[in-house]
Amino acid sequence: MSGTFELDPERLPQAIADLEEARSRIIDIAQEARELGLETPNQGSDGVSSNAGLQISRVAGGQDGALFNANEAYLEALNATIDNFKAMLADYHSVEDANQLGLQNIDAAEFSVSETPSERREREFYENNPHIPPGARG
Fold first, then answer.
1. What superkingdom heads the lineage (predicted)?
2. Quick check: 62 and 37 in contact, CB under 8 A?
3. How far apart are CA 23 and CA 29, in angstroms?
4. C-alpha separations of 100 from 16, 89, 108, 125 in Å
5. Three-state SS across the chain?
6. Distances in Å between the alpha carbon of 91 and those of 77, 84, 96, 98, 107?
7. pTM for this predicted structure
8. Which residues, 6 or more positions from 33, have their beta carbon under 8 angstroms from its beta carbon?
9. What confidence score (pLDDT) does residue 1 get?
């Protein structure tokens, strides 16, 4: 069962909220990194200090920097997980609704064609009046 997990459907809303909070924090960190990358590095009194300032600025804020790439990867993973959890929650509610309505034993194939309300009324009319040929209704 490696790579899989189960989540209590009753706890999904809180898990989603926690992930959204984490996403918000990552966005804040990404903004701080961008601002750090825009700062002019301190020109220290020696070459090592000057180079360190340049490297920190490059790594933190640039699109090729490690912090930028890490933030992007975290955001991508969080967004995918949030979307998956929301889909799981929607599926759970659909099943719960079907169970409460007593629809658990209905074959989904029966609902493969959707009809409009007017089509449904016409079909029901002819089903209830078999002596009238289809299309004869005025």
1. Bacteria
2. yes
3. 10
4. 25, 16, 16, 30
5. CCCCCCCCHHHHHHHHHHHHHHHHHHHHHHHHHHHHHHCCCCCCCCHHHHHHHHHHHHHHHCCCCHHHHHHHHHHHHHHHHHHHHHHHHHHHHHHHHHHHHCCCCCCHHHHCCCCCHHHHHHHHHHHHCCCCCCCCCC
6. 21, 10, 9, 11, 17
7. 0.56
8. 60, 61, 65, 67, 68, 71
9. 45
Residues 60, 31 contacting (CB under 8 angstroms)? no
What pLDDT was estimated at residue 68?
78
Of 53 and 104, the structure prediction assigns the larger pLDDT to 53
Residue boundaries of the structural domains of the chain = 9-106
